[in-house]
Write a structure and sequence with these properties.
The complex is a heterodimer of chains A (421) and B (153). Chain A has 15 helices and 17 strands. Chain A has 421 residues and is an alpha/beta fold. Chain B is built from six helices and four strands. The radius of gyration of chain B is 14 Å and the shape is globular. Classes of the chains: A alpha/beta (421), B alpha+beta (153). The complex binds pyridoxal-5'-phosphate. Chain B: It holds the Pfam family NifU_N.
C-alpha cells in the first residue's frame, strides 16, 4: 500500500527517480535561499537552465564561435551550421513547414513588435481594426496600440468571463470587415487560461483575417503545431523554454513574410546594395538585420533538444498533476482566493490572500525559500477585470514536484501567522 | 520565522497597515500629488494643507498598496502634521537614508519624529521593498514642490 501511494502520482507525473534525475540537470535548482532549499515557482517569468544549455554555450564560445553567414573560414562555417541547426530545432519544435519561416529575434516582445511594425508600414490604414483580448501580456497590447496610433487603426479587446475564459461569442461579434489582424495569446501568463486558439484562428480565417499567436506561455508547457493550428504568426521567447535570454522566435507563414516590408535595415538582410536602390534577402534573413544573437540561438536549440528528450506530452502530464495538486492544496487555505478558474489551464496559479497585499506575500514566502512572482504580471487590463491591483502567482515547470507545492502551501501559513488571519 | 521578517513586519507596522490613520481626502486642498510605484502597482494620493507660514496644518492620504507602503504613508501623515514644510523635506531625506541604510552607518536618532520612523528601518534588509516605504514620502515631496505626480522609478 505504501509503495502504491508513493507511486500513485507517477501515474500522471514522473516517478520519484526520474524527477530526481531531471532536477539534477538544473544546477540552479540546487541551492539554499535564506537557509531553506530553493523552491522555484517563478517559471512563467523565466525558467532555470539545464546543464545541456550551459555547457553548449560554453563549448560554442570555446570552440565554434565566429560571426555567421559572412566568412569562408572554418569557424564561421561551424558557427553558421550551429546557428542554422538551432533554426532547424525550432522548426521541428513548432512543426513549421520550412526553416525560412523561422525568424530569430531578441525575445517575444521584439517578435511582436516586428510584425506590428511591418503591419504598420505595409498593411494598416485608418479605420482598420486589430482584435486582441483582455488576457494579453502588455507586449501583445502596446505594440498594436502604437501601430494603431500611427495609422488611425483601432485595437479592440475580446472580453473574458469571471473564470478568465476567452469569450468566443464576443470574439465572433468583434470580427468584421475592418479587422486586419487578430493578435491573441495561446496561454495567459497571469492566470494560466489556455485559449481556444484553434477555433480563434478558424473563425478569423473564415473572414480572411490573419492571426498572430503569442505562444510565450504555451511553448514551455505543451506541444505546438503551427500547421495544425494554421497560425499565420506564432511567437515565443527563449528564456521561458529553458534557453538563454536574448533570443526569441517568430514563425510567419511564407506568404506573409514575402508580402511584408523589411523590419530593420542593415547587413545580412540584403541581396544587393547600391545607392540607386537595394534589394532584400529572402526570409528569414530579410528580417534578421545585423549580427544576430548567435550563441543565444544555439543555446535555445540545445534547450529544445533537451526538452524534446523528455517529451512534451510527458511534460504536460506531469504539470497537469502539479496544477491539480496545487489547486487542491491552495483551495484548502482559508481566505485564499484563486484568480482565474478557466476549464483549461497551463500550470500557472494566481491567487490572493484576503487582506494581504501580494507583495507582502512574496517577501514572506521568499524567506521560506519559495520564489513566486507578485504584481500585475504585465497584464493590467486583466487585473482591472478582476478588480485587483496584483496577485501572487506560482508557475510550474516539469522539474517541480509535489513537495514544492507543499512548501508553497506551508509558507503561506507563515503569511497568515504574521498577518493574523 | 526569521528575525529579518519579524523586524520588517513589526506590530506597529501591521497596525498602521490594517488601520491607516488620516485615510481620507482633504477637499479643496491645493497641495496634492499622486504617487505610483510602477513595478508593483502601488498607488496613493497625498493631501496637504499649509498655513501662510508654510507650516503643514493637515496631512492625509488615500490609496492602495502593500503593508509597508500603507503603514509608511499612515505614519508619515501623523508625523508631518504641524511641521514646517522645509522640516518635512529634511525629514524625508533623513528617512531615505534610514531605509537605504546609507548616511551614517548607525544613525542615532535623537529627534522624536525620526525615532518613530525607526520601525521602518527593517526594510533595509529588503532592497526590493525600499520603494514601498518611500512612495508616500516621494509623493509628499512632490505635493510640496507643486508637482502633480511622483514615481519611484
Ligand atoms: C504571454 C507573454 N507574452 C510575452 C512575453 C514577453 O516575453 P519577453 O519579455 O521575453 O519578450 C511574456 C513574458 O514576460 C509573456 O508571458
Amino acid at each position: 500500500m505504501a509503495a502504491l501511494e508513493k507511486h500513485s502520482p507517477a501515474r500522471n507525473g514522473f516517478d520519484t527517480d526520474e524527477l530526481a534525475r531531471i532536477r539534477a540537470d538544473f544546477p540552479g535548482l540546487d541551492q539554499a535561499v535564506h537557509g531553506k532549499p530553493l523552491v522555484y515557482l517563478d517559471n512563467a517569468a523565466s525558467a532555470q537552465k539545464p546543464r545541456a544549455v550551459i555547457e553548449r554555450l560554453s563549448t560554442f564560445y570555446g570552440h565554434d564561435y565566429a560571426n555567421v553567414h559572412r566568412g569562408v573560414h572554418t569557424l564561421s562555417q561551424r558557427a553558421t551550421e550551429a546557428y542554422e541547426g538551432a533554426r532547424e530545432s525550432v522548426r521541428r519544435f513548432l512543426n513549421a513547414p520550412t526553416g525560412e519561416e523561422i525568424i530569430f529575434t531578441k525575445n517575444a516582445t521584439e517578435a511582436i513588435n516586428l510584425v506590428a511594425s511591418c503591419f504598420r508600414e505595409g498593411v494598416l490604414e485608418a479605420g482598420d481594426e486589430i482584435v486582441s483580448s483582455l488576457l494579453e501580456h502588455h507586449s501583445n497590447i502596446v505594440p498594436w496600440q502604437l501601430a494603431a496610433e500611427r495609422t488611425g487603426a483601432r485595437v479592440l479587446p475580446v472580453p473574458i468571463d469571471d473564470n478568465g475564459e476567452f469569450l468566443l461569442d464576443r470574439y465572433r461579434e468583434l470580427l468584421g470587415p475592418k479587422t486586419r489582424l487578430v493578435a491573441v495569446t495561446h496561454v495567459s501568463n497571469a492566470i494560466g487560461t489556455v485559449t481556444p486558439i484553434a477555433e480563434i484562428i478558424r473563425l478569423a480565417h473564415e473572414q480572411g483575417v490573419p492571426v498572430l499567436v503569442d505562444g510565450s506561455q504555451a511553448a514551455p508547457h505543451m506541444a505546438i503545431d503551427v500547421q495544425a493550428l494554421d497560425a499565420d504568426f506564432y511567437v515565443f521567447t527563449g528564456h521561458k523554454v529553458f534557453g538563454p535570454s536574448g533570443i526569441g522566435v517568430l514563425f510567419g507563414k511564407r506568404e506573409w513574410l514575402d508580402r511584408l516590408p523589411p523590419y530593420q535595415g542593415g547587413g545580412d538582410m540584403i541581396e544587393r546594395v547600391s545607392f540607386a536602390g537595394t534589394t532584400f534577402a529572402k526570409p528569414p534573413h530579410k528580417f534578421e538585420a545585423g549580427t544576430p544573437p548567435i550563441a543565444q540561438a544555439v543555446g535555445l536549440g540545445a534547450a529544445i533538444d533537451y526538452v524534446n528528450g523528455i517529451g512534451m506530452a510527458r511534460v504536460a502530464a506531469h504539470e497537469a498533476m502539479l496544477l491539480a495538486y496545487a489547486t487542491e492544496r491552495l483551495s484548502a487555505i482559508n481566505s485564499l482566493e484563486i484568480v482565474g478558474r478557466a476549464s483549461r489551464k497551463a500550470a500557472i496559479l494566481s491567487f490572493n490572500l484576503m487582506g494581504v497585499h501580494a507583495h507582502d506575500v512574496g517577501t514572506i514566502v521568499d524567506h521560506s525559500g519559495v520564489a513566486i512572482r507578485v504584481g500585475h504580471h504585465c497584464a493590467q487590463p486583466l487585473m482591472d477585470h478582476f478588480d485587483v491591483a496584483s496577485t501572487a502567482r506560482a508557475s510550474f515547470a516539469f522539474y517541480n514536484s509535489r513537495e514544492d507545492v507543499d512548501a508553497l502551501a506551508d509558507s503561506l501559513k507563515s503569511v497568515q501567522e504574521i498577518f493574523g488571519r | 520565522m526569521s528575525d529579518d521578517l519579524r523586524e520588517l513586519y513589526q506590530e506597529v507596522i501591521l497596525d498602521h497597515s490594517r488601520d491607516p490613520r488620516n485615510f481620507r481626502e482633504l477637499p479643496d486642498c491645493v497641495h496634492t500629488a499622486h504617487g505610483e510605484n510602477p513595478l508593483c502597482g502601488d498607488r496613493l494620493d497625498i493631501y496637504l494643507t499649509l498655513d501662510g507660514d508654510g507650516k503643514i496644518t493637515d496631512a492625509a492620504f488615500k490609496g492602495r498598496g502593500c503593508a509597508i507602503s500603507m503603514a509608511s504613508a499612515s505614519m508619515m501623515t501623523e508625523i508631518i502634521r504641524g511641521l514646517d514644510m522645509e522640516k518635512a523635506k529634511a525629514l524625508f531625506e533623513r528617512f531615505h537614508d534610514l531605509v537605504m541604510g546609507s548616511g551614517e552607518a548607525d544613525i542615532s536618532l535623537d529627534e522624536d519624529d525620526l525615532d518613530k520612523l525607526q520601525v521602518l528601518a527593517g526594510v533595509r534588509q529588503f532592497p526590493m521593498r525600499v520603494k514601498c516605504a518611500t512612495l508616500a514620502w516621494h509623493t509628499m515631496n512632490a505635493a510640496l514642490e507643486g508637482d502633480a505626480v511622483a514615481s519611484t522609478e
